[in-house]
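S1.2 Input.
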Amino acid sequence: LIYGLDILKSADYRDFIETINIPALIITGSKDTICPKEASIYMHKIIKNSQLEMLDCGHMPFLSREQEFNNILESFIRAIELNRD
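S1.3 Output.
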């Protein structure tokens, strides 16, 4: 675990995210102290065709705001499916 956290601390993928060219959903917590909301806002600005959802919670919105998280995810997936047809 410590090794994995060290990798995350030193990794920089900002150049990579510019190459993402598919619909992307970014769900983050406005009170996240591990991945600051500013990082999610930055990713949203850089990734074309991205959607940013900021929930009133910390680092794991899929646990602390489970129903809201699932509703957002389901809506995102349905919108993609509708656009395919």
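S1.4 Remarks. The longest strand covers residues 24-29.
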